[in-house]
Automatic annotation (TrEMBL):
InterPro entries per the UniProt record, alphabetical: AMP-bd_C (IPR025110), AMP-bd_C_sf (IPR045851), AMP-binding_CS (IPR020845), AMP-dep_synth/lig_dom (IPR000873), ANL_N_sf (IPR042099)
Name of the protein: Very long-chain fatty acid transport protein
A molecular-function term among this protein's GO annotations: long-chain fatty acid-CoA ligase activity
Catalytic function, reaction form: a very long-chain fatty acid + ATP + CoA = a very long-chain fatty acyl-CoA + AMP + diphosphate; tetracosanoate + ATP + CoA = tetracosanoyl-CoA + AMP + diphosphate
UniProt keyword Signal, yes or no: no
Role of this protein: Acyl-CoA synthetase required for both the import of long chain fatty acids (LCFAs) (C14-C18) and the activation very long chain fatty acids (VLCFAs) (C20-C26) by esterification of the fatty acids into metabolically active CoA-thioesters for subsequent degradation or incorporation into phospholipids. The transport and fatty acyl-CoA synthetase activities are genetically separable and are thus independent activities. Esterifies VLCFAs in the peroxisome matrix. The VLCFAs are actively transported into peroxisomes by a PXA1-PXA2 heterodimeric transporter in the peroxisomal membrane.
GO biological process assignments: long-chain fatty acid import into cell
Residue ranges of domain AMP-binding enzyme C-terminal in the record: 526-601
Gene3D superfamilies: 3.30.300.30, N-terminal domain of ligase-like (3.40.50.12780)
Domain AMP-dependent synthetase/ligase: residue ranges: 93-457
Membrane topology: Multi-pass membrane protein
GO cellular component entries: endoplasmic reticulum membrane; peroxisomal membrane; plasma membrane
Family: Belongs to the ATP-dependent AMP-binding enzyme family.
Length: 650
């Protein structure tokens, strides 16, 4: 049945007209050129002109994407065939650039040779202390050159690293150690207090190493710096005779934990190479470039897309311990950076800074990341003089990755409309209330989303394929939960990202929301509108349940860090001119600050749980939108009870 449906989809009126026109022209004139011209004319006249228009507009973009895809596939195949992992690829880079600068950090300068020797010390120390291939060493430290050298050294010894979010504490920290089944923990001295807090509950037999001198106040912790000074700088022999398997695990990166405990996502050598190399190829990064990486190195963007440019492409990377909006452009000028990274709300934070001369006193030509709001895209480029913004989409644990390579405002990437099967990502319609994919009642297959229609992004899973395969999570059950089966045909399998996007007729993709949040109102980008009205204040928009109403209603938390008060009357005045009625938030909550993840994404889970119940909102001012007056009115206990009884309706 599926094969029959595929055959029917190939037989269209434009294609029949094209073949008929070509046949008639060739039989009449015997001219191949004339036959081709008439074939195109017949195809266009029969309705195919839309496809021809799209093809003409997107062919250069698609061709560039295809070249990068083919080059990346070739590199990954060579890694598999020659049994080369990231340590071996770095070794080749270091050998060719031994005296060039690999890392810049504060006033320090690390050459590729120094990085190679430091990581060799790490590898030799791990081997001498009894660490075996496949065992896991957890790393808990703030960003610095040693962070990347530690996991690189572990890889040289065949040891897997678990890169733990340096903001985690107590149960979340313990959970990450247990989830990775770590046998050792390397922690920065600056985070010793976090380890001390959980010391009585640490896994039995866990070996502790303190980075930064001393033992961090833990009597059973070894001084890592002192031990490394005694270790050899020579390249250690790989513990497996035939060399590394490129499909082996390199390290674990944890999800942000905004919807529960962090999950450990597996990053293989292949996946690290694929992600890093693709970004480098698309944006032309190489020798001579200096990349400003102010992002956490425990995260995909900073730790893979940033560090990978140094390890695989010879780019000099500036590492910052923490992001600073006020120092961003001064740093870029100081280090003569030609590229920079961003994520989450960083661009908005930079735009909110007072204007100063260093805004344009830099050499940054490209910035890449995700989270740049369309409303400030052009303003950001014009103020700071950055030629290209490389917005991308990527989930750490998935096979769904896209890049905006031509500066199309708001797009997170593209899918070819000429040859969609080359990179088989799809959008499928979802229930706006449950977030579950909608299925056709006749065959129980998912319903594809058309251009302009919101849908969940899914990626075809091809086991064993270097690009289409899935590394997933350490927990196999968690990986299986992300699998969608019987999607477009019976027996197929797709990875479910949980993200809602919209595709336009040219194949450009635009992020809308997570399926956990209702996207019918969020699709209008309420957060950006609120933030603009309130002078770039932090805002988080989420869905809340209203008694007696189906689905969820929009609610916005607005940050008022100095307690000056939020002009809710101004919001009520301006929002009707910016948002349709269905997109305006029905409830407002004024908070001192909105908690964010380590990657500058707003945490909404607790806000969503609190809803608009005054008893759960810790005394924060609450407001509801009065449908009669169009004003936001105070929401107290009696008003909440009236809403619950249905006396106040929306």
């Amino acid at each position: 049945m599926d094969h029959l449906k595929n055959m029917r989809s190939l037989i269209t009126r434009p294609r029949i007209a094209m073949l008929a026109s070509a046949a008639i022209a060739y039989l009449a004139t015997a001219s191949i050129c004339l036959a081709l011209l008439l074939a195109l004319a017949g195809y266009a006249a029969a309705g195919g002109w839309r496809f021809l228009r799209v093809a003409a507009l997107t062919a250069p973009r698609d061709a560039r994407g295809l070249v990068v895809l083919l080059r990346t596939r070739w590199m990954l195949r060579q890694m598999i065939a020659r049994r080369r992992g990231i340590a071996q690829l770095f070794g080749a880079t270091a050998a060719a650039n031994s005296h060039r600068v690999c890392f810049l950090y504060e006033d320090q300068s690390w050459t590729f040779r120094q990085v190679d020797e430091y990581s060799n010390r790490v590898a030799n120390l791990l081997k001498e202390s009894g660490h075996r291939p496949g065992q896991v060493v957890a790393i808990l430290a703030e960003s610095r050159p040693q962070f990347a050298c530690l996991w690189l050294g572990a890889a040289k010894a065949g040891v897997v690293s678990a890169l733990i979010n340096s903001n985690l504490r107590a149960q979340s920290l313990l959970h990450c150690l247990h989830a990775a089944d770590a046998t050792s923990l390397i922690f920065g001295a600056e985070l010793a207090s976090a380890v001390l807090e959980v010391a009585p509950s640490l896994p039995a037999g866990l070996r502790l190493y303190c980075l930064g001198g001393g033992n961090g106040g833990l009597s059973n912790a070894a001084d890592l710096d002192a031990n490394l000074l005694r270790a050899s700088t020579l390249q250690p022999a790989y513990p497996v005779k035939q060399g590394p398997n490129a499909k082996d695990r390199l390290f674990y990166i944890y999800t942000s934990g905004t919807t529960g405990m962090p999950k450990a996502a597996v990053i293989s050598h292949l996946r690290f190479a694929m992600m890093s190399n693709t970004i480098g190829l698309f944006f032309g990064l190489g020798l001579g470039d200096i990349l400003y990486d102010c992002l956490p190195l425990y995260h995909t963007a900073g730790g893979i897309l940033g560090i990978g440019q140094a390890f695989l492409r010879g780019v000099t990377v500036v590492i910052k311990r923490k992001f600073s909006a006020s120092a961003f452009w001064d740093d870029c000028a100081r280090y003569q950076c030609t590229a920079a990274q961003y994520i989450g709300e960083i661009c908005r934070y930079l735009l909110a800074q007072p204007a100063k001369q260093s805004d344009r006193r830099h050499r940054v030509r490209v910035m890449f990341g995700n989270g740049l709001r369309p409303q400030i895209w052009r303003e950001f480029q014009q103020r700071f003089g950055v030629d290209k913004m490389g917005e991308f989409y990527g989930a750490t644990e998935s096979n769904c990755n896209m890049v905006n390579i031509d500066n199309t405002v708001g797009a997170v990437g593209f899918l070819s409309q000429i040859a969609p099967s080359v990179y088989p990502l799809r959008l499928v319609r979802v229930d706006p209330d449950t977030g579950e994919p909608l299925r056709n009642p006749r065959d129980q297959l998912c319903v594809p989303a058309g251009p302009g229609e919101p849908g969940e992004l899914i990626g075809s899973v091809v086991p064993g394929d270097a690009i289409r395969g899935i590394d997933g999570y350490v927990c196999k059950q968690a990986t299986e939960k992300k699998m969608l089966r019987n999607v477009l045909r019976h027996g197929d399998c797709y990875f479910s990202t949980g993200d809602v996007l919209v595709m336009d007729e040219l194949g450009y993709m635009y992020f809308r929301d997570r399926t956990g949040d209702t996207f019918r109102w969020k699709g209008e980008n309420v957060e950006a509108c609120l933030s603009n009205v309130l002078s770039l204040a932090d805002c988080a928009v989420y869905g809340v349940e209203v008694p007696g109403n189906e689905g969820r209603a929009g609610m916005a938390a607005v940050a008022d860090p100095e307690g000056r008060g939020v002009e809710v009357a101004r919001l009520a005045q301006h929002l009707p001119h910016l948002l349709p009625a269905y997109a305006r938030p029905l409830f407002l909550r004024i908070v001192r600050h909105i908690e964010a993840t380590g990657t500058f994404k707003m945490k909404k889970t607790e806000l969503r749980k609190d809803g608009f119940d005054p008893d759960r909102c810790c005394g924060d001012p609450l407001y509801y939108l009065c449908c009669r007056s169009g004003q936001y009115l105070a929401l107290d206990g009696p008003a909440f009870a009236a809403i619950a009884r249905g006396e106040i309706r929306f």
